[in-house]
Design a protein that fits this description.
This protein is α/β, with parallel strands linked by helices. It has helices at residues 31-40, 64-73, 91-99, 110-119, 123-133, 153-163, 165-179, 188-200, 207-215, 221-228, 237-248; strands spanning 8-14, 18-19, 50-54, 57-62, 80-87, 138-139, 149-150. It is 45% helix and 12% strand. The strands form two sheets. It has a five-stranded mixed beta sheet with strand order 1-5-3-4-2. A two-stranded parallel sheet has the order 6-7. The protein starts with 7 loop residues before the first strand and ends in a 12-residue tail after the last helix. It comes from Candidatus Lachnoclostridium stercoravium. InterPro entries: DUF6551.
């Protein structure tokens, strides 16, 4: 995407002519968010929707909720809307710009953002997806918990960047082998804790022992016991401690030291 592609013109466009490409990179319309915008709407600070003119049509890549709010404020009837219209963008350019939006109505979750970046062929996002699928799991862009579906997209993406693809995939593989993709084992707390454990004790832990010991525990153990610790241990450390506790058990000879 070249700098001259970012130039735009302000045009008034009929709302019915504004297309929302939900089959590729756009998210579904959140009616609760639309109602919130309507309730708080202030024309003086309202942002113009950002639109790409491509192949003779206008595609909205930022502002679909604002458009829906304007229509709702107009009694559900179509109306002319002032838009920022960009020219020379490809659909992948639009997807990347969608993922980067920061407007009032954006509140863009990690799932839709990663989905858009993958469509835009962003290298980091694509490698993140490949590393997740290499462990036998899939990212759920809608962030709904289910077997073998990773809903904690934000946590997973942060861990992927923090510890690298190899350790990230290994952590997910251990969770998968131990609990067969049970949704409770794929909570953000469990994913973060296992990634931290694999990173912190790299070269020290016995993989077979870790999987075996985890299998003997309930898949919700990491979250449940970590949560029960309250403020006795800071932040994510209380969940990491549960992985260490599962691994060590009552063994004196094979246990690992507390390093955090």
């Amino acid at each position: 995407m070249q700098n001259n592609d970012k130039k735009y013109k302000e045009l008034r466009i009929m709302s019915t002519d504004l297309l929302i490409p939900r089959n590729t990179y756009q998210r579904e319309l959140n009616t609760d968010r639309v109602h919130k915008i309507v309730k708080q709407f202030d024309e003086r600070v309202a942002n113009e929707p950002k639109v790409s003119f491509r192949n003779g049509s206008y595609y909205v890549f930022d502002g679909q909720h604002t458009i829906a709010a304007r229509v709702e404020r107009n009694g559900g009837n179509p109306l002319m809307i002032l838009c920022k219209v960009y020219y020379g963008l490809t659909e992948k350019d639009e997807a990347r710009l969608f993922a980067e939006q920061t407007g009032f109505s954006a509140d863009l979750g990690a799932g839709p953002r990663i989905r858009a970046l993958v469509f835009a062929e962003d290298e980091n996002a694509c490698n993140f997806i490949k590393s997740t699928e290499a462990a036998g799991l899939r990212i759920d862009y809608a962030q709904r918990r289910a077997r073998n579906r990773l809903a904690c997209v934000s946590t997973a993406f942060k861990e992927f960047h923090k510890i690298g693809a190899e350790k990230y995939t290994e952590a997910l593989r251990i969770l998968k082998e131990a609990w067969d993709g049970d949704p409770d084992s794929l909570r953000s707390e469990a994913v973060g804790a296992m990634c931290d454990f694999i990173d912190l004790y790299d070269g020290e832990y016995d993989r077979k022992r870790l999987v075996r010991r985890c299998k003997k525990s309930d898949p919700n153990t990491i979250y449940r016991k970590g949560y029960a610790m309250g403020n006795s241990m800071a932040g994510s450390k209380k969940y990491l401690y549960q992985v260490l506790d599962i691994y060590n058990g009552s063994s004196q000879r094979l246990n690992l030291p507390l390093k955090f």
